[in-house]
Design brief:
The complex is a heterodimer of chains A (about 270) and B (about 450). Chain A is of the alpha+beta class and about 270 residues long. Chain A has helices spanning about 40-50, 75-80, 95-105, 145-150, 230-235, 240-245, 250, and strands at about 15-25, 25-30, 55, 60-65, 70-75, 130, 135-140, 155-165, 170-180, 185-195, 200-210, 215-225, 260-265. Chain A has one domain (about 10-85, about 100-265). In chain A, about 20% of the residues lie in helices and about 40% in strands. In chain A, the strands form 2 sheets. Chain A has an 8-stranded antiparallel beta sheet with strand order 3-8-9-10-11-12-13-7. In chain A, strands 1-2-4-5-6 form a 5-stranded antiparallel beta sheet. In chain A, β11 and β12 form a beta hairpin. In chain B, α4 links the parallel β3 (about 80) and β4 (about 110). Chain B has helices at about 5-15, 25-35, 60-70, 90-105, 120-125, 125-135, 140-150, 270-275, 285-290, 315-325, 420-425, and strands at about 45, 50-55, 80, 110, 155-160, 185-190, 200-205, 255-260, 295, 300-305, 310, 325-330, 340-345, 350, 365-370, 435-440. In chain B, the strands form 3 sheets. Chain B has a 7-stranded mixed beta sheet with strand order 4-3-2-15-16-6-7, with helices on one face. Chain B has a domain at about 20-165 and about 255-375 and about 430-445: Metallo-dependent phosphatases (Purple Acid Phosphatase, chain A, domain 2, 4-Layer Sandwich). The chains are: A alpha+beta (about 270), B alpha/beta (about 450). Chain A: It comes from Melanomma pulvis-pyrius CBS 109.77. Chain A: Belongs to the TIP41 family. Chain A: One of its GO terms (cellular component) is cytosol.
């Protein structure tokens, strides 16, 4: 099989096929491959009903599986994008949109139609694709951060990109997944980070904690959101380099208030 | 000190080794470059043969790979369609090297402006920070931005050959030799890998029948609707062969190169020439559109869902090309996994020259070579119509036509330019197009460790 235009199918640039580790009853698997080619992108566009982001790692995933019960929690790009608003109802506008449109309307009254409106910021509330039973249920049990702060050896680590879009150079939207497996537990963080320059900043984190010995799985979802200008002002007062900070969601998070939070838990035996 | 003659060659040597040159040399270089660029029109005239390149984005080692694959300056005549900077780690070295080459060999390299050649964009996407990091001040960034303002907005390539003189290169490993067209046929498209091996070849079919009708047993003599008139009118090797006189079939129109695409404010190339380009890229208007707009599977013009920026459909491109006597628009601006993507029956092509974009996309890159009209002097065109199944060569192992695009509607005619003749009279045949496809430079050449995620105690 070859690809469109005879371009080579395989680029050994980066990534790997499946890598996995099994700890007790849990099997953790990640897959990292290059972005999709034209053919699969077309297919995905058809199935999603919206144009996928510019960099779409459609083959990638990170998966936690409880082998005895077959329970799985997987993170992949397609399912995440399937939760993006496809109607254009929650559509954002770039910062200079108003200025742009005012000028344009005078000149081209006939060009009014917005092509295939959808939430092009690719904002998703994706918390993973869960299959099997029992399923995650609301809980008050928080993720035990103290246990995660201990410098236990990391047996398995991966960082899996799912999608990224430069918002036509108006900022960034990216969804990626990090996982670290220690002898007794694991932490997975799937983060959606979106910065629309001069408009809005969003960070939506899904953390999954697994305690291998007890079969306890906790999922925490935290959505943060703030106007760009507010964040920028807060950063200006912090003595930090605002431009650098605005590119680093790790350091940015504390400057953005939480707008939504949920906790769920399941115990797998 | 001044930068000229041997100093310039020294700077080139230093930059080729990916080492920045001192700030005072940058200032001198930028000054020289501006003097040169100010003399260029908004639309630079370029004679074929030329090799057209898309986005580079500071991927210096991949730019070196590009020169290895496409030939070095000044042996190869290059046209870069902008976005030299941002994203990659070596915007500074990449842009300064291209600029040095421009000053050293002004007639062998053309640089046009991309949307990243702007103060506003470079402060957000890396070039500003890189300059600050490498020089400790923003001076170099400022000098470079002043050069950006003088870069041309487009280029017009004339004198490109309609067909390629076939490469003698070996056949790439996974290419089915039976899928290649007859060596005597007129080659419209050829794709080569980084080693110059033929991956794919497509013969031009001049008949305008539907793509199923002519399979197999068509009569070779009758399949061409166009009489085999003398193929050229002007003296070989001059640009005068074709441009004025539309009567010869073998006369390809010019190729417009621009970073983004078209603008509803621009219906003729002369209107581009009238713009005042020496400024920061504005947020709206014709200059903005040329650097920002994208082709899309729509009718007419559309607004991007982002609330700013235009999208344009096949009818817009065909109309523009017809009106301006163009056979092709070459543009960059959008990442394509395969390195290039022809759309709208090969009336527009996206060329992308940053392999493994952002060091993580795993895409390949491409450059587009246009040959010189007359380079195949003495070549006798055969009206052999469909040979070996016509489009058979287009894609290895699949039946995708060169015009395959996102839409893929039922009426999607996958034949090449032949279709266009039905709807619009005397449309230009596209030039012969040789794509060289290449991958990212080997990791060890870039002096940085292979990208392996570093385990960290994230919370």
């Amino acid at each position: 099989m070859s690809s469109l235009n005879g371009a080579p199918l395989d680029t050994h640039a980066l990534g790997h096929e499946d890598t996995s580790i099994t700890r007790d009853a849990f099997k953790i698997t990640t897959r990292k491959l290059p972005i999709l080619k034209a053919g699969p992108i077309e297919e995905m566009t058809k199935n999603l009903g919206i144009a996928p982001p510019e960099m779409i790692f459609g083959d990638n995933f990170a998966r936690i599986e409880h082998v005895p019960t077959g329970w799985r929690l997987e993170f992949n790009a397609f399912d995440a994008l399937d939760r993006v608003d496809k109607t254009g109802e929650s559509m954002l506008k770039v910062s200079y949109s108003k200025e742009w449109q005012q000028n344009r309307q005078k000149q081209f009254e006939d060009i009014k139609e917005v092509v295939k409106p959808f939430d092009w910021s690719y904002s998703t509330e994706y918390k993973g694709s869960e299959t099997g039973s029992p399923t995650l249920q609301p809980t008050d049990t928080p993720i035990p951060l103290a246990l995660l702060r201990r410098p236990d050896p990391i047996l398995f680590f991966d960082d899996v990109m799912l999608y990224e879009d430069e918002l036509a150079d108006n900022g960034i939207a990216m969804l990626s997944c990090k996982i670290r497996v220690m002898p007794a537990r694991l932490l997975l963080l799937t983060r959606f980070f979106m910065r629309l320059d001069d408009v809005l900043v969003r960070i939506r984190d899904t953390r999954v904690y697994v305690e291998f010995a007890t079969g306890e799985v906790i999922r925490e979802y935290t959505a943060r959101e703030e106007k760009y200008e507010v964040v920028r002002k807060a950063l200006a007062g912090s003595g930090e380099d605002a431009l650098v900070m605005l590119r680093d969601p790790n350091r940015l998070a504390e400057y953005i208030p939480i707008v939504e939070k949920s906790l769920e838990k399941v115990v797998l035996k | 000190m001044s930068i000229g003659g041997s100093d310039l060659d020294k700077a080139i040597t230093q930059l080729r080794a990916c080492r920045p040159i001192p700030e005072n040399q940058v200032r001198e270089l930028c000054y020289k470059a501006r003097e040169l660029l100010i003399e260029e029109g908004n639309v630079v005239g370029v004679d074929a043969p030329v090799t057209i390149c898309g986005d580079i984005h500071g991927q210096f080692h991949d730019l070196m790979e590009l020169f290895r694959v496409g030939g070095d300056v000044p042996d190869t005549n290059y046209l870069f369609m902008g976005d030299f900077v941002d994203r990659g780690f070596y915007s500074l070295e990449s842009f300064l090297l291209l600029l040095c080459l421009k000053v050293r060999y002004p007639d062998r390299i053309t640089l046009i402006r991309g949307n990243h050649e702007s103060r506003q964009i470079t402060t957000v996407y890396g070039f500003y920070d890189e300059c600050l990091r490498k020089y400790g001040s923003a001076n170099v960034w400022r000098y470079c931005c002043e050069v950006f303002d003088y870069l041309a907005l487009g280029a017009l390539v004339s004198g490109a050959a309609t067909s390629l003189s076939p490469t003698d290169g070996p056949i790439a490993d996974n290419t089915n030799i039976d899928s290649l067209p007859d060596p005597d046929s007129e080659i419209e498209i050829e794709t080569l890998n980084a080693n110059g091996e033929i991956m794919y070849r497509y013969a031009r079919n001049s008949d305008s029948q539907s793509n199923t009708a002519s399979q197999g047993t068509s009569n070779p003599a009758s399949s061409s609707p166009i009489a085999p008139t003398p193929s050229r009118t002007g003296p070989a090797g001059t640009g005068a062969t074709s441009s004025a006189n539309g009567s010869s079939r073998n006369d390809t129109g010019a190729v417009l190169c621009v970073h983004g695409g078209l603008s509803p404010l621009i219906d003729t190339i002369d209107k581009i020439r009238l713009l005042d380009r020496k400024q920061e890229v504005p947020h709206e208007g014709a200059m903005c559109d040329l650097l920002w707009s994208d082709p899309d599977e729509i009718d007419g013009w559309g607004l991007s869902p982002r609330g700013a920026g235009f999208l344009f459909g096949a009818d817009i491109v065909k109309c523009f090309n017809h009106k301006n006597d163009l056979s092709l628009i070459a543009r960059a601006h959008q990442l394509v996994m395969e390195g290039f993507k022809e759309m709208f029956e090969s009336t527009i092509v996206t060329v992308w020259s940053a392999p493994n974009y952002c060091y993580r996309c795993g895409n390949v890159a491409a450059i587009l070579e246009l040959g010189e009209d007359g380079s195949n002097a003495g070549f006798v065109r055969r009206s052999n119509g469909e040979r070996g199944g016509g489009g058979g060569g287009w894609v290895l192992g699949s039946n995708d036509g060169p015009n395959r695009n996102g839409g893929g509607g039922p009426n999607d005619n996958r034949r090449l330019s032949s279709v266009l003749g039905d709807s619009m009279q005397r449309t230009r045949d596209g030039p012969g197009r040789r794509y060289r496809v290449f991958e990212a430079a080997p990791q060890d050449s870039r002096g940085m460790p292979a990208k392996k995620p570093v385990a960290d105690y994230f919370l």
